[in-house]
Amino acid sequence: MEFRNFIGGEWRETAAASANINPSDISDVIGYAAESDAAEIDHAVGAAKAAAVSWSASTPQQRFDVLDFIGSELLARKDELGRLLAREEGKTLAEGIAETARAGQIFKFFAGEALRGGGEAMASVRPGVGVEITRSPVGVVGLITPWNFPMAIPAWKTAPALAYGNAVVLKPAELTPGCAHALAEIIARSGLPDGVFNLVLGKGKVTGARLVEHRDTDAISFTGSAETGSEIAATCGRLRKKLQMEMGGKNPMVVLDDADLDLAVEACLNGAFYSTGQRCTASSRLIVAGGIHDRFVASLTGRIAALRVGNALDRATEIGPVVDGRQLDKDLIYLDIAAKEGGQVFGGQTLQRTTNGFFLAPALITETNSGMRINQEEVFGPIASVIRVEDYEEALQVANDTPFGLSAGICTGSLKHATHFKANAEAGMVMVNLPTAGVDYHVPFGGTKGSSFGGREQGAHAKEFYSKIKTSYTFA
Ligand code: NDP
């Protein structure tokens, strides 16, 4: 299978290509993906710029029809595309199928948003003058996406970009070209005019960097690591370019003495380890009150030991492989750091399976404190640590002791503590008696502090980033 660029309505090959490897079985080459140079980005941005004006004038019905077509096909093919996702990224089949369905629902939601456009009209403070506040597209939007949600994140950036009338250049992660290619292949048949959506595959440092600095990209939406985000922010700041970023997390899950133990263990198991812990919203810090701590750890370690780690395409698998060798090395380094800092590591050994993949037993690190590196730096693997606290007040203080602020959870039977936590957790999303990961597609997604920058993604609030406001005064 060849994964090519899609520019100006044409599929294009590049001189170089890189192998796309299945992390559950490194002998399985899924395909070869274009390794683009900066000139391919220039070409794609040129095509987007040429198409942007007429798409900005498209009717709500045209936009609805295109987005609805894409959403319907994603939903109809969720099993097939979910399997590709699991094979390429290492999520389990069930997770891959659910993510593909979610991508379809996102397109359906923004199909509706295209119809709900609208503006505001009001009287001026001056007699005889009317005021209108309208929204118009931003222009050419560059989208840069990570590997960990290879279908959903391209969907939740592309769908609002198109719904609000923008032209798009998508640069997906190098590790997951197949999902982006499959999405582009559907978009190519959706009735969208040539050049409105363009896909360029290749290395971020070459293609992504070029997309950010290109003088004809009007806005950049990025999801990925804090390090890359800082580089992109510096360039966009210099160029005064509109920017939205979603970066990492070090998400706390507080478990109070009055929590339902089974519910808390289930929420932590799901939040910390599902999707191999490779979620920006993963519960990587479990902050547990002293009265429930020992029962909680005993129950959670029992559940962790029973998790079936294996080939993502095997229906019995509950935890798939780590995405690649580099991420596996990073996970192992952090386990070592945690042990040297005095943490007690349960699990965390590499595993052999019938296929040669990057399998890691989920790990729980107990006896940690908030200052340790394992509790301050994002790992992005199936690894969580436990911090023992005295009471709710200390739990909240530890929960907020992080440079990140994406998602925060609390398990408690106390309405008083849940209400206080919702108001005072320094995070963009707060979960009560629910895992920190797992969000709805029709409401805003994003964080505070070092996790996010710019307007929110998803839901109707996405229009803040993907459109610009004009205020018109008329004296008649
Ligand atoms: P990276 O930051 O390495 O990559 C993200 C994207 O940026 C990729 O497409 C990458 O391309 C591209 N890129 C890399 N370097 C540059 C550059 N200099 N200029 C422009 N683009 C560049 O992150 P990962 O893909 O490795 O994803 C893991 C990280 O992302 C984790 O830290 C995680 O927390 C974070 N993340 C945050 C989410 C959120 O919503 N808050 C969601 C998902 C992940 P290439 O792949 O070719 O290097």
Automatic annotation (TrEMBL):
PANTHER family: ALDEHYDE DEHYDROGENASE-RELATED. It comes from the Bacteria. The active site is at residue 246. Keywords: Oxidoreductase. This is Aldehyde dehydrogenase, thermostable. Signal peptide: none annotated. PROSITE patterns: ALDEHYDE_DEHYDR_CYS, ALDEHYDE_DEHYDR_GLU. Residues 17-471 form the Aldehyde dehydrogenase domain. It is an enzyme of class 1 (oxidoreductase). It comes from Phaeobacter italicus. Belongs to the aldehyde dehydrogenase family. Its EC number is 1.2.1.5. The keyword Oxidoreductase applies. GO terms for molecular function: aldehyde dehydrogenase [NAD(P)+] activity.
